[in-house]
Amino acid sequence: MPNRNKRVFLNHAVKLFNVETLDLLRSYFDDVEQINRSTLLNEREQNAVTRGEASDKARMQAHWYQVWEDEKNNENILKAIYPYTYISFPPQVRNVRAHSHKVPWHQDIGYMRLLGDRGHAQVITCFIPLEANPAQHTTLQFCLDNEQTEQEYPHVPTDEFGAGIQHVEFKDIFHYDLALGDALIFGDFTIHRTYTPPHCEINRRSLEFRLVNPQDAIVGKDYFDVANRKFIQR
Fold this sequence. Notes:
Elements: E1 10-13, H1 19-27, H2 29-38, H3 43-50, H4 56-59, H5 74-81, E2 86-88, E3 92-96, H6 108-114, E4 124-129, E5 139-143, E6 156-158, E7 161-164, E8 173-174, E9 183-187, E10 191-195, E11 204-212, E12 222-225, E13 230-233
Antiparallel strand pairs: 1-9, 2-11, 2-12, 3-11, 4-9, 4-11, 5-8, 5-10, 6-7, 12-13
């Protein structure tokens, strides 16, 4: 269970989500490509698609939240994320297919800072790979050098990405070999980046959800309430 007062933590949640649901969501990526091709995108969205992300319309589909609607496993899911039981809408929908899609070292708080008043004061992230065998594909790599100090690093625009950490040599670097149904849950000061292990494919379809404590929800914003398995607006 995450400590709400800690902002550097990482939990490899094994078999947290229903595999059949994830298989179904993976099949929706054909729809994502079609939406991205057929929708008139603004410059921001075009840049996002270039980075391997989905357009706004593709992200704003309620079906991505089906992973959180598992009534039988709701108790285990809540234990894994509590007290961050509100999920921000929409999620990040990623289809990594090239070196240029690799996100540099960063902390998610760096992206929250870019949002100004629209960003949450504190979030945690739930990363869910959708490939049938995620261990053979691009994944996330982590560093816990700041676990004790909980240092927030300066972020600067890096390549096509809005925020990244530069000129820092990290030491404690590692990744997990994930299976379908696993998730990685981590704090917004946790250092991470996109990573392709040796002999793995530069390819990954995945979902990333930002979760907040209900007391930190922003008025007028849409959320998915995990405890009650429904969309709400504060």
